Amino acid sequence: MNIFKKNVGVYGSNSYIISNDDGDAIIIDVGGNADDLYAYMKEHNLNLKAILLTHGHFDHVLGVNALRKLTGAPSYISKDDYDMTQRTDFMLNDKMRNYIDEPINIDHTIDKEGPMKFGSIELNVIKTPGHTKGGLTYQIGDNLFVGDTIFFHSVGRSDLYGGDESELMDSVNKVLNLEGNYTIYPGHSMNTSSEEERANNPYVNAKRS
What we know:
The strands form 3 sheets. The protein has a 6-stranded mixed sheet with strand order 1-2-3-4-5-6, with helices on one face. Strands 7-8-9-10-13-14 form a 6-stranded mixed sheet. About 45% of the residues are buried. The longest helix is centred in the last third of the chain and has 12 residues, at about 165-175. The protein has helices at about 35-45, 60, 65-70, 80-85, 90, 165-175, 195-200, 200-209; strands spanning about 1-10, 15-20, 25-30, 45-50, 75-80, 110, 115-120, 120-125, 135-140, 145, 150, 155, 185, 190-195. The protein has a single domain, classed as Metallo-beta-lactamase, Chain A (4-Layer Sandwich). It is built from 8 helices and 14 strands. By secondary structure, it is of the alpha/beta class. It is globular, with a radius of gyration of 16 Å.
């Protein structure tokens, strides 16, 4: 399995292209730069099977319509965040309204946890609300794509539309209590790991003390 990470969009969110040696691929979050992401897929002869979204904030979905048009790949988001993608006042603040003026095209909603398969790529969906109502984490092998739930030595905001601090901390602990050590791929900034965050994330330590 190969993981390609690209920093995209006006808020520097992370997009992840995950592919197998047979060329099957998925992408997790598309906050912009759809042309660049598509160029990478073309260069590496990848067949995009799905566009998966961790949550509905605009900096993670802004490039979905363009990439969907370029590739024909279907898009997926939590059922609980679908409304955010259809109303721009839910997915962004006043300063950002010039970046998007139309709903995001969503083909399928996800309403339960469990395994999913896209071509040869198998993953597990974990519900992680708190940053938004419908936050999702995608587990692929020993890798966790957590959106804005966990960051290096920090956690996501809960003061935006659909956020809930108690749910966020429950989700953080849910992810970090998964047995084993996972590589954590967040929605912004650098990667981290389960062991690193269990030991050094001050929010997690405060919650458990």
